[in-house]
Design goal:
The complex is a heterodimer of chains A (273) and B (429). In chain A, helix 7 packs across helix 8 and helix 10 packs antiparallel against helix 11. Chain A has 273 residues and is α/β, with parallel strands linked by helices. Chain A is globular and about 50 Å long. In chain A, strands 2-1-3-4-5 form a five-stranded parallel sheet, with helices on both faces. Chain A contains 14 helices and five strands. Chain B is mainly α and 429 residues long. The chains are: A alpha/beta (273), B mainly alpha (429). Chains A and B meet through helix 1, strand 2, helix 4, helix 5 and helix 7 of A and helix 4, helix 5, helix 7, helix 8 and helix 9 of B.
């Protein structure tokens, strides 16, 4: 994967070390250069420091994202000048956020870069499920939409309910009433959005992908791939489906009352269980 | 929220700066509590934080807790909707974690632990398990440093659980490392060894980028057990697997220097420490390296280097923990030179600093040092009492290779830093 970064020199070095042999990293010093990279035909990931953006630059990035979704990693300090552009990017793109100085900064940045979600897949999936998502309570809808768009978010049903500010049973009832599958399926699907690009468009070992994404093992990752896409991760890498086909398969498994396959059981699949 | 630590800090304040810090800190945490309870409007949050920020700017000398508190004030306006439903809260939680950590490292460990605990509870209730795990991880370290072993163990345990639920392997493994260090500090070397071996296996499997932390913890176990060659091998392995950046390499270099000192190869230790003290990007790491140079000079009874290190540290910004260690090492050095009056005075300062800030580990070490000094005084010692520790003249081949590699790494890091400083290696186009 190609990475284009509008960040400080120190942050650029950190990105280069993490990406290593898994991609190429180039630094830019202006928003215009970043936008040119976003609009290029090459698929890639954008890394941006929001303290280097003004309001016009932020809006230009949002507009470019709407035209052609890209993976965006916002690598930011928690500072006044960073939070307004960060909030804009959070609300209007599928950006992932890594904050300077957090205890997990290094691993969080590694996950954000190497497991950059397929932005087009996330946006298309969220759009396809929108008629169902709008039936959910406001905060639950926002949380789920963000989770499915970015592939990041709560890892358990209880955490999802807490994030959405509702009781677990209320959440389960709301999901069923909206015609959506259980929170376990939704969380599993979001995790696949997260790893999809790494599976089909990178050479990262599957075992490493599984470990970074929080799967208990590579076997669990393959089980989820088979459940949702009908193929193992290795097969997906050899014959990657189009985004439209991937969205269709995910949507089928996330909506109640659609075609049921023989293998609809999905483990929670987390390394914590 | 328990405001007692803040009120105690306010009552103990003697200067205008200390009063401002305590007042603004207390007001900020009370504002935060009101926001969590949804008792304050968004506009009022903005107005209040701006006023508190302006007041904080009035302190004469900015300290790390002031900077961290400023970040909290900058993050708070993004809490109330519709500005930042998820992102804003996560940023506030992280800002609070950094504020609590800064307080603990500075002058107010009790207040720091209170902030960290509050951040951990609120983040968990809000479903921000990642931030909750991180807060508990740091709180576990803070409690361990205050010798509150049981509370530290439980805090680390909960951090591990939350990190597992959040998919934060690094935090989960660091929590396990913390528990291993707890066992080590309580004297359970075999238990710590077994525990960390299992943690290392897990790190290799699920989070290899922090394997270096486990290896350094294992190295410390072996060092305390007297297995210096094994400690050096483990620390060198940590250096090899860490990121080839200043931030990645310096922790291992500092520990390697310490182990080579114990192993009797002070020249290698000094080379590594001097490089770290010169070019480490973080001031805290530079001070730590200077601390170790002071320790080394005291152990070697090397007066010129001892004085140079003490002079350098006198002008550095230090945490309370580091200040206590400096006094302790000064005491050890002066005792080695036969200057027992100075040694006693330094030891008493170390005891006072450690006692006032509940740094129990350093208190124990300072008490032992005072006993040694008193023994020397009773014996009527007036001249140098300690011969420089003998350096090894021959090393096993493996140790020779590692020593050469450590020196080479230290020198290449200095050279790389010099290049980066000119902008040639910045990578920007």
């Amino acid at each position: 994967m190609n990475y284009v970064a509008l960040v400080s020199a120190t942050a650029l070095q950190r990105v280069q070390v993490i990406v290593g042999p898994h991609g190429s990293v180039s630094g830019v010093s202006t928003v215009d250069a970043l936008l040119r990279a976003m609009r290029s035909a090459d698929d890639g990931c954008i890394v941006v420091d929001p303290t280097m953006l003004d309001r016009a630059g932020t809006e230009a990035i949002v507009a470019a994202f709407r035209d052609m979704p890209r993976s965006i990693v916002v690598y930011a300090p928690i500072a006044r000048e960073a939070l307004e552009p960060s909030v804009t990017l959070a609300q209007q793109t599928a950006a992932q956020f890594v904050f300077h100085g957090a205890p997990n900064e290094r691993s969080a940045l590694g996950h954000a870069l190497l497991l950059a979600p397929d932005a087009a897949l996330g946006v298309a999936l969220t759009a396809a499920l929108d008629p169902l998502l709008v039936q959910l309570p406001h905060q639950l809808r926002l949380t789920l939409a963000s989770m499915l768009r970015t592939g990041t978010g709560p890892a358990t049903g209880e955490a999802l309910a807490a994030h959405a500010g509702v009781a677990r049973r209320s959440m389960d009832r709301a999901l069923a009433a909206a015609g959506l599958e259980s929170s376990r399926f939704l969380i599993a699907a979001a995790r696949l959005v997260r790893v999809y690009r790494a599976i089909v468009a990178s050479r990262l070992p599957f075992r490493q992908i599984a470990a970074m994404a929080g799967y208990a093992s590579q076997r669990t990752l393959d089980h989820h791939c088979t459940t949702f896409f009908g193929h193992s991760s290795a097969r997906l890498r050899r014959h990657p489906p189009s985004v439209a086909v991937a969205v269709q398969k995910l949507t089928e498994h996330l909506t109640l009352g659609t075609a049921v396959t023989s293998d609809r059981h999905v483990h929670s699949g987390s390394a914590a269980s | 929220m328990n405001v007692v630590p803040f009120l105690e800090a306010l009552s103990a304040a003697t200067t205008d700066d200390e009063i401002i810090r305590a007042r603004v800190g207390l007001a900020t945490m009370q504002l935060y509590a009101s926001m969590v309870a949804q008792d304050v409007a968004a506009e009022q949050v903005v107005t209040t934080t701006e006023r508190l920020h302006a007041e904080l700017q009035g302190v004469g000398r900015i300290t790390p807790p002031d900077v961290a508190l400023g970040r909290v004030l900058e993050a708070l306006p993004y809490w109330p909707p519709p500005a930042g439903p998820v992102l804003g809260r996560h940023a506030v939680h992280l800002a609070l974690i950094r504020y609590g950590e800064a307080l603990f490292k500075a002058l107010e460990p009790a207040t720091g632990i209170e902030v960290l605990t509050r951040a951990a509870i609120d983040a968990e209730l809000a479903g921000d398990l990642s931030a909750a795990a991180q807060a508990r991880l740091i709180a576990g370290f803070a409690l361990r440093a205050r010798a509150q072993w049981d509370a530290s163990w439980e805090m680390y345990g909960r951090a591990h659980e939350l990190a597992g639920e959040a998919g934060e392997h690094e935090i989960a493994i660091r929590a396990r490392i913390g528990q291993g260090n707890n066992m080590l500090l309580r004297g359970d070397l075999p238990g710590a060894r077994t525990h960390l071996r299992a943690v290392a296996m897990r790190a290799r499997r699920s989070c290899p980028e922090i394997l270096w932390r486990v290896l350094l913890a294992q190295a410390n176990v072996e060092s305390l057990g007297g297995n210096f060659d094994l400690a050096i091998a483990l620390a060198y392995r940590a250096l090899s697997v860490s990121d080839p950046t200043p931030e990645g390499q310096y922790p291992a270099l500092v520990d390697l220097a310490h182990f080579f000192t114990d192993y009797g190869v002070p020249d290698v230790a000094r080379e590594a420490l001097t490089a770290v003290a010169t070019i480490a990007p973080e001031a805290n790491i530079r001070v730590q390296a200077q601390l170790n140079l002071l320790y080394l000079a005291a152990q070697q009874a090397d007066r010129p280097r001892f004085d140079a290190a003490a002079e350098s540290l006198a002008h550095s910004r230090k945490t309370v923990h580091q200040q206590a260690l400096i006094e302790l090492f000064l005491a050890q050095g002066y005792r080695a030179f036969g200057e027992l009056a100075e040694a006693r005075a330094a030891c008493e300062r170390a005891l006072r600093t450690a006692g006032e800030n509940a740094l129990h580990q350093i208190s124990f070490q300072a008490e032992e040092e005072c006993q040694r000094i008193d023994s020397a005084i009773r014996a009527g010692v007036t001249a140098r009492t300690t011969a420089p520790a003998e350096a090894r003249t021959t090393l096993p081949p493996r140790m020779r290779r590692i020593a050469a590699a450590v020196v080479a790494t230290a020198r290449s890091a200095v050279a790389a830093d010099a290049v980066a400083g000119t902008g040639v290696g910045s990578g920007a186009v």
